[in-house]
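Researcher: I'm preparing a figure for a lab meeting and need a structural model of a single chain. I don't have an experimental structure, so a prediction will have to do for now. The sequence is pasted below. Please return the structure as tokens so I can convert it later.
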Amino acid sequence: MPSYPRPGSRLLSLLPLLPLAPLAAPLAVLAVGAFVLSGCGAGGGLSAEQGQRKVAGRVFVVTGASSGLGRGVAVKLGGYGASVVLAARRGAVLEEVAAEVRAAGGQALVVVTDVSDPEAVRRLAEEAVERFGRIDVWVNNAGIGVIGRFEDVPVQDHVRVVDVNLKGVIYGSHAALRQFRVQGHGVLVNVGSVESRLPLPYQASYAATKHAILGLGNALRQELRLAGQTRIQVATVMPWGIDTPWWEVAGNYSGHSPRVRPMDGPEDTVDAVIHAAIWPRREVPVGWKTEGSLLAHQVMPVLVERMGADAYHGNVVSGPPAPDRVGAIYEPMEGVPTGVEGGVRARMAREDAGR
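Model: Understood. Here is the structure written out token by token.
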């Protein structure tokens, strides 16, 4: 089991920055105020009437749709009357999601897909167009992660994270943009993270891929601008840590049960993805914690990164001991949550009560 220093032993490294620490809280308050007053947040959920008016009849491809954020987006789109193409590795679970989409009022097509396979992603696009005639929105949501000190994680696991999180987004974006150019319109929504700008320790390859996703999206926006493709848009959604099954299936070499506090529920990010599909923006931070952290990071990057790293370090070492696991990064796991919410907050409460 790896040995991690306790958080207190790291505070000495912050001493040169202590004169700036009082600015952190005011910056967070300013960030929240700017968020509220400017309307630059992710946007709230749509009313049923808005959803039907803006979404009904549109065709969405959603990767990672078998659980978590992807499942939540797919089912909510179904309730708005959308046609949803569901992509993930677990065919049986996708059929369950498809039944929910149809019961909510939408249409659904299941396409079993490993996004790390470019041919599988190409077929996904082809089957979507064959069934529905076009693709209005492509949501690159599928993602995996590995928790642990960089050198304690097998290098092949780091590579697998890149294969899914970055290459999968590249393959999906490539397929989507080719179709968008043919039909003359479309919205590409890539799901990044607060770690697209603010990296955390013990998730190095995950943070690297989320940084890259943001860079990819912004580069694509410039290419489209230069080509005069004003009806094709790209948005990157950047949520805080959210309670989905991701934590229960991530690879873990930290020696402790995966956890993070504070953690958001998935509902706001589900709404943010759909909002970005309708009103796309360059970057879509989700919630006041993300807005505040990113604004503070722009002003005091070293201090904010150190404070964030120490806070997450404290989360990691506070979890009960856990054996190493490869998780679901190569193959799906049996007996893990498949809902939208992962039950992580409830698990952490049980673990804390048990001690």
